[in-house]
Amino acid sequence: MVMSSLKLQDLIEEIRGAKTQAQEREVIQKECAHIRASFRDGDPLHRHRQLAKLLYVHMLGYPAHFGQMECLKLIASPRFIDKRVGYLGAMLLLDERQDAHLLITNSIKNDLNQGIQAVQGLALCTLSTMGSAEMCRDLATEVEKLLLERSPYVRKKAVLTAVHMIRKVPELSDTFLPVCAKLLHERHHGVLLGTITLITELCERSPAALKHFRKVVPQLVQILRTLVTTGYSTEHSISGVSDPFLQVQILRLLRILGRNHEESSESMNDLLAQVATNTDTSRNAGSAVLFETVLTIVDIRSAAGLRVLAVNILGRFLLNSDKNIRYVALTSLLRLVQSDHSAVQRHRPTVVECLREPDASLSRRALELSLALVNSSNVRAMTQELQGFLESCPLDLRADCASGILLAAERFAPTKRWHIDTILRVLTMAGSHVRDDAVANLTQLIGGAQELHAYSVRRLYSALAQDISQQPLVQVAAWCIGEYGDLLLEGSCEETEPLQVEEEEVLALLERVLQSHMSLPATRGYALTALMKLSTRLRGDNNRIRQVVSIYGSCLDVELQQRAVEYNTLFRKYDHMRAAILEKMPLVDRGGPQADEEVKESKEANHLLEPAPVPTEPQASKLLDLLDLLDGPSEDSQQPPPVDPSPEGTLIHLLDLPCAPLAPAPIPNLKVFEREGLQLNLSFVRPPGTPTLLLITATATNASEGDVTHFICQAAVPKSFQLQLQAPSGDTVPAQGGLPVTQVLRILNPNKAPLRLKLRLTYNHYGRSVQEIFEVNNVPVEAWQ
Questions:
Q1: Nearest partner of 331 among 344, 342, 346, judged by Cα
Q2: Which residues contact 404 (CB under 8 A, 6 or more apart)?
Q3: Are residues 578 and 448 in the same domain?
Q4: What is the three-class DSSP state of 686?
Q5: Which residues contact 648 (CB under 8 A, 6 or more apart)?
Q6: What's the CA gap between 416 and 585, in Å, rounded?
Q7: Where are the transmembrane segments (predicted)?
Q8: 357-400: per-residue pLDDT in tens?
Q9: How far apart are the C-alpha atoms of 211 and 527, rounded to whole Å?
């Protein structure tokens, strides 16, 4: 006999009336026991009521898995009241991770073929919510038939179900292609909106569908033009904008169809200009349509004037009072700054104004855009604005702002003096937030500007006397005083105000740096070395310097102690050599990785073109020694590689004659990956001077009709190898055989072991994210033997 239980309404009231969580659990456990008993007794008349209560319990977070099979029984029931609760329970309690969901496939198929609209709607809703790939394949034919059903209620739900099927099983694209063209003539708002969404999904996932639907661009243009001029229906207008949801969806579809296609882009240029000029932006609905229009103009091959119009619209968005609209405008302008730099430059004053926004996300995006707008013509004005922002910006933005100013000054500095002044201001305002290489870059810059030595040392001395808390500034000032302290005391610089400095003042300032609790060990090392160098540049007695140096001979910091002990030894035993050892540092060339690579390539080219002696072992051993600094000593790397015992090499060593080495045989290229038009090829080069080094160039090409974006190639090798991944040439592989993306892998193989690579490719293609992991085991023997 079925135990008496509460009605759903009574259960809700009792649960809400529970004063503690323990009381709530007690009520639910008691009712769940009644529900289980009812399910066991098989009460068909009240099964749907018991399941409805169980669904409410599930919504509160309590376990309700024991009701899954009851959902199947209710779905198979001929009564509509049972089916309604059964399908609702299936959507809440079942998903594709559980095998039980496959048991309702036949029930859904029967209900789709019943002809009752309400039942068909329930089945379609359930299928679009929790249908797995297997269910989608089995029921695709039934959904295709319902797309042409007379009732717009069923057609709308069938379209949305087809969208879910395409997302789950992209291979079903061909099933829905013919029907979509007919549905574009639909006048029902929901069906048309769903059809546009379905076509968008098809085009993003299938190149064949993209090519097929480019034929309907004129029809889409006509639909959108009708929306803009006459409106679709008054009931779907929002704030005076005719059906903004449908407009936005059509614009997104046009953006996909017009991307990298000249003919489609040209056919929609006039319409986009009309939408951009006639849309009211006083309400959010109009701003949304206008923003989608801008994105479409930017992505397709639009006319130059239309792109300028799009940038101007984003400029107007920057003046909007809504923070979200301003953020969207800044983000979009940041994307456009590379392709339409001059058009974005016109809105530079407005962008700079956004730096003062109290909203952190807005000011960060404005900072990124401001740094991207800096060029050789506006570097002075923009740097001044950015320095003003640096003084008052939040702490979390200070590092990005300081590093951005330093990079801009390094790229576009009009003069060396301006460059030095700019770096000094940044170090003074935010020295603790700059990049690690800022000190080395400034010392290199000052060292290379001989005419500015006196000016630099005076500026740095004045800054150091005012503030010793900014550690990078203190380090540069200590280095400069040590190198050019004699110029500081001469007082012969005409570019600065007269500054009379005594030797005792300089020494006292450096001692103050050494004794300050704010000084880092590295800063103390700079100051101690500066004192030591001043012992050869000052004309007074060196006893004070010797006393300070001897004090740090017992310092707890090992690096500082070692430095002080060596300097004391220099005073006591090698005083006659001190002046020569402490001479001014010679200028050291500091180039970026790209410059270093170019120099190396040119040297290798000259080496191949000119006769030269056979390379000897120390070159390879030096490279291995450098790697040992990172990985620790190894027995294999300590021994130089054996000399090639070929007859030609032996003869050259015997006669000690210069002779050009034989050119190695070319290593064949290797195709390691191909999918949907994206192809990755590897080419191999072994530099003649370093036989254990292998240079691999990974080249990604794209023959499909959609761009491959956010492309990242990562590699791994066994532990016996040394791998260095250099920066790629870009992260977007253009469609239809555009400029390929290349990346160089430097692999050191001291044991000449067989090479195995593990590659991971991550990218976005046709709107979906793809990740591929695979091994390359067929590297040519010539690449590693």
A1: 344
A2: 367, 371, 386
A3: yes
A4: coil
A5: 662
A6: 19
A7: none
A8: 888 899 999 999 999 999 989 999 999 999 999 988 888 888 88
A9: 69
CB atoms within 10 A of CB 678: 21
Widest distance between CA atoms in the chain = 112
Q: Tell me the DSSP string of 542-567.
A: SHHHHHHHHHGGG-SSHHHHHHHHHH
Read off the tokens for 633: 């000593």
Left, alpha or beta for 73 (phi > 0: left; psi -120 to 50: alpha)? alpha
Residues 576, 687 within the same domain: no
Domain closes at, from 523, 553, 582: 582
Per-10-residue mean pLDDT, the chain, length 785: 69 91 91 88 83 92 88 90 92 82 87 90 92 90 90 92 92 89 86 93 90 91 87 75 90 92 90 88 87 91 88 90 91 86 89 89 91 91 91 86 90 91 88 79 86 88 88 91 85 61 87 89 91 85 86 87 90 86 74 45 41 38 36 40 42 39 72 90 86 89 86 88 86 84 89 87 85 88 81
Residue 94 CA to residue 65 CA, distance in Å, equals 9
- The answer to whether the CB of 644 falls within 8 A of the CB of 655 is no
Residue 147 is assigned to a structural domain of this protein: no
List of long-range contacts for 559-567, beta carbons under 8 Å, 24+ apart: 559/521, 559/525, 560/521, 560/524, 560/525, 560/528, 563/525, 563/528, 563/529, 564/528, 567/528, 567/532
Residue 96 lies in a domain: no
Tally of domains in the chain = 2
Nearest to 728 by CA among 763, 703, 754, 755: 763
Q: Are 423 and 540 in the same domain?
A: yes
Q: Which two tokens stand for residue 742?
A: 């290349």
Tokens of 167: 């997302």
Sign of the Cα torsion 481, 484, 486, 491 reads negative
Based on the fold, state whether residues 421 and 568 are members of the same structural domain. yes
Q: What is the full DSSP assignment across 614-663?
A: PP-THHHHHHHHHHHHHH---HHHHSPPPPP--HHHHHHHHHT---PPPP
Which 3 state secondary structure label does DSSP give 780? coil
Element (H, E) at 758: strand 757-765
Q: CA-CA distance, 215 to 679, in Å (whole number)?
A: 28
CATH, residue 763: 2.60.40.1230
What are the CA-CA distances from residue 409 to residues 215, 419, 544, 591 (Å)?
51, 6, 40, 16
Does a structural domain hold residue 566?
yes
572 and 687 together in one domain: no
Domain that holds residue 735: 670-783
Q: In the block, which residue shows the tokens 């004699």?
A: 486
Domain membership of residue 176 (yes or no) is no
What residues have CB less than 8 Å from 17, skipping those under 6 apart? none
pLDDT of residue 38: 87
Find out whether 295 and 253 touch, Cβ atoms under 8 Å.
no
First to last CA, the chain: 83
Q: Rounded to whole angstroms, how far apart are CA atoms 270 and 222?
A: 11
Contacts of 187 (CB under 8 A, 6+ apart): none
Single residue among 556, 582, 608 that ends a domain in this structure: 582
Q: What CA–CA distance (Å, rounded) separates 576 from 568?
A: 13
